[in-house]
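Forwarding these from the shared drive since the link keeps breaking.
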Amino acid sequence: MNMLKALLFFVLTFFVINAKVFAKEYYVSVKGNDNNTGSASAPFRTISEAVKHLFPGDTVTVHEGVYREWVNPVRGGKSDLKRIVFRAAPGEKVEIKGSEVINGWEKVEGHVWKVVIPNSFFGSYNPYSDLLTGDWLNNKGINHHTGEVFLNGKSLFEKSKLEDVIESKPYSDALDKEASKYTWYCEVDDLNTTIWANFQKFNPNKEKIEINVRKSCFYSSRPGINYITVRGFIMSQAATQWAAPTAEQIGLIGTHWSKGWIIENNIISNSKAVGITLGKDRSTGQNVWMNNPEKDGSTHYNEVIFRALEAGWSKEKIGSHIVRNNVIFNCEQAGIVGSLGAVYSKIYNNHIYDIWTKRAFSGAEMAGIKIHASIDMLIMNNWIHNTGRGIWLDWMAQGVRVTSNLFYDNTKDDLFAEVNHGPYLVDNNIFLSKTSLTDWSEGGAFAHNLFAGQIAILKVLDRFTPYHFPHSTKVAGLRNINGGDNRFLNNVFVSQDGLSVYKNAGFPSISEGNIYYNGAKPYEKEINAIEISDRNPSFKIEENEGDVYLITELGDSILKVNTLMVTTRRLGIPIISESIYENRDGTSLTIDTDYFGNERSSTNNKIGPFNNLSPGKIKLKVWKQ
C-alpha cells in the first residue's frame, strides 16, 4: 500500500510540475509584430495573434495602447487551475475597441457632413446594413443599425431620414436633450457606405470620429470555450445586436454558452446593446417568436428551455462565471444580460450606470442587470443607478440571493421580479428610486432592506413558467403567478402604500418586524409592525471621487427595536416550488451580517440594512471606490 501511495504521489507531482513548466506567457504590444514569437522581447502586435498560440494554463499580457480588433478565443482552459488568462499589463492603459477612426469628411450643408466608405473596408460584416432586430425589441419607428458614430467618444443619435439629420430636433424621450441634436444617417449600395452626420459646431476633420465596425470586442464565435479570465481592459464601441433571451446573446464581451469565465476589473462602455453577456447559444433557438408570431412568446421560451436541457444545460457544463469589479456604462440595452447561461454565477462589486439613456429603442430586456434563470446566483454589492431598471430577475429566479446592492435614480424600478416561483432571497439592499420593487412573482423573501420607493404587484395568470428541482436546471413543473407567498421580515418602508398592496395577491404572505414611516401601511396580517406616520425620512446621495454617501435621519425608534434573526427555519417553504430557502451550496441560511458586513446576532439585530446606526442625522459611506 505504501508503494502505491508513493507511486501516486510521484505521478501527481510530475503532472503538477510539468503543468507549470509547460504553461507559457505571451506578450502583445502596439510596437510588436505578429511574425514575432510573442516573448517579452519579441511581442505580438495583436491579441488575435496571441489567441492562436494559447493553450490551457497560458497567459497573454497586453501592454499599453489601443487595439482595434475582435478577440475571438479558439480554445479555453480545462479548469479553475488551468485557465487561459488575458490580462492588461498591471498599471498600463490597454484599450480594445470595436471601432475604427474615420477621416475625410465633406461638408454638405449647415452642420451636416458626409463620408463615403468602400464596403470592402468592413470585410464580411457591415453594421450599416445590419438592422437591430430580435424578439421583444421595440424600435419605436426608427430603423436602428448595429453601427454607431462617435464624436470624441460620445455616440450620436441615429435617424431614419437624411432630412431629420439636417433638421436635428431634440429627441423628446432622450435623457440628454442637447446630446440628441447630434445625429447621423446611413445608406449602403453595392459599392459604398455613405454616412451623413450632424456634428453641430464641431468640424469632424479636427475631432476624433469613430464608427463601430465589429460585432464584439471579446467573444468566442464558438460555444463551450471554458475557463477564460479577462482582466483589466478598457473595452468599448462594439456593434452588438439586440440580445433577446430566445437568441444567441453577443455582448461587447460575452461568454457564449460556456462555463467558468472570470470577467474582472474592466471598464466596459458604448455597446450598441449589451456590455456583458452570459447567454445562451444559437442552436436552441434564434429569435423564434419573431419568426413564428402565431405562437406566444412564453410558449416559445419554454420550448427554448427544454431544448437547452436536451443540449446539456446543467451545472456541469454551463455557467459558474464570476463578473466582478467592473465599471459598465453607456450601453443602450443592458449592462449585463444572461439567458440560461448565467446559472450558478456570481456578479459582485460592479458599478453600472447610464444604461438606456438615449431611449431611441426599448423592449423587454433592458436593465442594469437582466437575468433569465438566475438559478443559485449571487448578485451582491453592486452600485446601480440611472439604468431605467436596476436588476430584472425574469423567469426561474430560484436559489438566487440579491444582497447589499445600492440603487437610486432608476426611472422604472430598482428591482423587477417577473414570473418567478421562488425561493429567492433579497436582503440588506438600499432601494432609493421612485419604485423600489415591481413584483410579478411569488415565493420571494425580503429581509433587512430599505424600501424608500413604492411597491407594485401584479398577478400573471396567462403565462406558465418553470420552477426547478433544488439547485438544478431540471424543470419540476410549470405554473402561472397568483402573487404573494412572500416573506417580508425586518425591512424599512417609507412610501405611502407600503405592503398594503399585497391585500390583492392570490397567496397570503408572511410579514413581521417591519417599520413603516410617513404613513406607509403594513401588510394586513402583519405581526409586530412598527408605524411612525409622523416622520418622513429624506434620503440624500452624495458622490465624491468615486465614494458614495447616504445622508438620512431615521429617528430613535429604529435603534431601540431588536428583531428575530432571519434563518432557513423562519422562512419556511414556498407553496409552488416546495424548495427551502438555503444557501447556494445547500447549507442552512442565516442572515448574520448587514449591508456593510457588520455582524448580526440574536441580541443585536436591528431593522433595515444597517445594524449599527447612530441617533440623529447620519452620513454613511455606502460605496467605496
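-- next protein --
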Amino acid sequence: MIPAPDRDVQVLPLNPHTLALRCRSSKRLRFEVEYGLERGTTANSYLLQAEQIALIDPPGEAFQEIFWSALSSRVDCSQIKYLILGHINPNRLHTVKALLARSPQITLVCSNPGAKILQSLLETLLPNLLVIKSEEYLSLGNDHQLRLIPTPTPRYADGLCTFDLKAQVLFSDKLFSAHICGDQLFDEGWQSLLQHRRYFFDTVLATQARQVESALERLQNLDLSLIAPAHGPMVRYGLSQLLQLYKEWCAAQTTQQLAIAVIYASAYGNTTTMAQAIGRGITKVGIRVESINCEHAEAEQIKQVVEQVNGIVIGSPTLGGHLPTQIQTTLGIILATANRSCPVGVFGSYGWSGEAVDLITAKLKDAGFSFGFEPIKHKLTPTAATLQMCEEIGTDFAQKLKQIKKVKMTLNPASDVEQAVGRVIGSLCVITAKREAIATAMLASWVSQATFNPPGIMVAVAKERAIESFLYPEDAFVLNILAEGKTTHKHFMKKFAPGADRLVDIATEDASNGNPILTEALAALECRVQQRMECGDHWLVYAAVENGKLLQANGLTAVHHRKTGGHY
C-alpha cells in the first residue's frame, strides 16, 4: 500500500519515557458527523518505553503502513510486551492483525466488552490476552505502573482509559479529543482549540452524556499533568478548564426536561453512524438523548429507559433478511412496555435487501404507535448528504415532540418585555453555504454590521438550524441582503423536509468563495467565520467580509418588523 500524499506521521516525545506517534491527514477520512468540520485529523498512538514496552492505540488501516515504518524505526517491535486498546473497531483491527503477525509475542490488553469484540471479529482464540473487567494496575517494571480504567459508553462499550502513574499522563482515547490536523503537539492557545473539542463532544459524546459523566467521576481523583487523547493536540495548558467544561456540557444534556431514546445495533458501523447523526440533531433542540447500543445493553436497562423517555428511535441493520437477535429482543421490550402515545422513528442500513426497517415499522404500526418521521433506509456506508438528512430528521423529530408536550419556549407573548424586544428590527437576508455537494440556506433577520476594519458582520443562528454546522470558524458563506418589494423571502419561510434542497427553483450564481449568491438579492457579502459564541438558544457568529457585490444599485433593503420578541 502506497501512503497517500496528504498523510504522514509526526513523532515527538511527551516525556523521557513516552513517544507520541501522530498519524496525520489534512483531509476528511470518513463520512461521519464527527469529521464534519473537515479540518483533517490525527490518529494518536503512544509508545511507553519502560523496562517492559507498551504500545497504546494503534491507528486504523488508512495509516497502517506509514505507522509501521515510523514505529519499527524507533523500537524493536519484537520487544513490545503490551498492546493496549482504548477501543476496538474493524478499521483499527487491520493494524492490530498486522502487528500480531509481525510480533506474535504481544499481549493484547482490553476491556471485557473489548475482548468479546476481538474474539468475534478475529474468529479465533487469542492466547495472549489480558482482559480488564474492572480497574486494575499493570506494571511495566521499575515501579512504572499503569492504571487501567474501563470507561464504557453506548458507542464505545469497550472504552478503556490508561493512566501512567509515573508520568501523570492520562491516555483518554475518545474523551477530550478533537478532529484537527496540525503541527501543534500541545494545546498552547487552548482557547482557540475549544471550538473543535466542543464540536467533537457535541457530535460524539453529547448523546452519551450520562456515561461520560460516570467516566469523569472515575477520573476525577487522578493527579493529572497531561491528557493524551486519540485525536488532536495533547491537553496540558487548558487541562483544568477542559475538565470543568466537560462537566458543564454533560450537565446541559442530562438535566433536560424531555428525553428521546436512540436504540440501535450495527453490523459494520453504518447504522451507528446514522444513529449518531440523528442523536446530534435531537440534542441541538435541547432534548436529552438516551443512547443505547443494544448489542451491549442488558434487557432490564433497555426496559427502564423505554419506560421513562418521551420518544423512541430504533435503528437496525439487516442480516440475512432478518433482524439481529438483539433488535428482536429490544423490539419486544418496546412493544410490551412503551407508552403508545410515545412517538417513534425507525432507521437502518443494509447491504442487500433492507427488510429490517420494514419489519420494525410494521410491528410498531400494528401496535398503534405514531411515527415522527418516515422510515429511513440507506444502502452501505452513509454519505455526507445522508448524514445531513439524518441530523435534520432528528431535529424535526425533537421539535415535534416539544410541540406535543407543549414545552414553553419563550416568555409570555403578551408581556411588555417580549413586545419591547420585538420592536428591534433587522434587515431580511438569506445566508447560503455549501460544503462538498451539500448546499443549504436560511432566512435571517438577526444580522448587523459588527466592525469597520476589517468590515465584519454578526448573525445569530438558532442551535437547531441545519445551517448551524456550516458556520464554524474558517467556514465561508454568503450573506444575501434581500430587496424591498421582492417575494424571495417567502420561499425560505416555508417548512423544508429534512435533506431537501433549500435553493430549488431559486436563481443563483457562484460567489468567488464557492457559495451561492441569490441573483435577485439587493447585495451579497462573501464572508468567512472568525468566531462564534454560545448565547442561550442561539450561536452568535462573527464573520469578516472578504468580498461584496451590489446587485441592485437603486433598491432598498427589506426590513423585518415584529410585534413580539418570542419568535421570528
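Residues 101 and 169 are 30 Å apart (CA to CA). The chain is about 25% helix and 30% strand.

- D.
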